[in-house]
Amino acid sequence: MIKIIAAxxxxxxxxxxxVLVLAxxxxxxxxxxxxxxxxxxxFPKFTDGRAFTQARLLRQRRGFTGDIRxxxxxxxxxxxxxxxxxxxxxxxxxxxxxADAERQFARYAAFYQGDAVVPQPRFAxx
Length: 126
What we know:
The chain has one domain: TIM Barrel (Alpha-Beta Barrel), CATH 3.20.20. It is 26% helix and 17% strand. The chain contains 4 helices and 5 strands, in the order βββαβαβαα. It has a 5-stranded parallel sheet with strand order 1-5-4-3-2, with helices on one face. The chain starts with a strand and ends with a helix.
């Protein structure tokens, strides 16, 4: 599950992390990741989904194991898809309740398709 961060709140230990803020038009396959603990990917508006692709590329092709954080226009109904594409934390949009966000994950207990978290599809998991 994604670590939920309320808007305006800093995540614990953020001051100790080496954070790379990746622009939406940047190629995650070419990003310098040496020594990076956290990659921030921005959602400038809810209709811009480039950060989903960037997260998946970082996890699956680059093998990045650090924190991938969603920032910007982060809506509660997008959190499950964010988690499935590789995000590990998200800063909610102003005015969104973290408790509502956590309930979103209880609605979807399992998935048939593979994803960045569990690559095998359901039928292959046994």
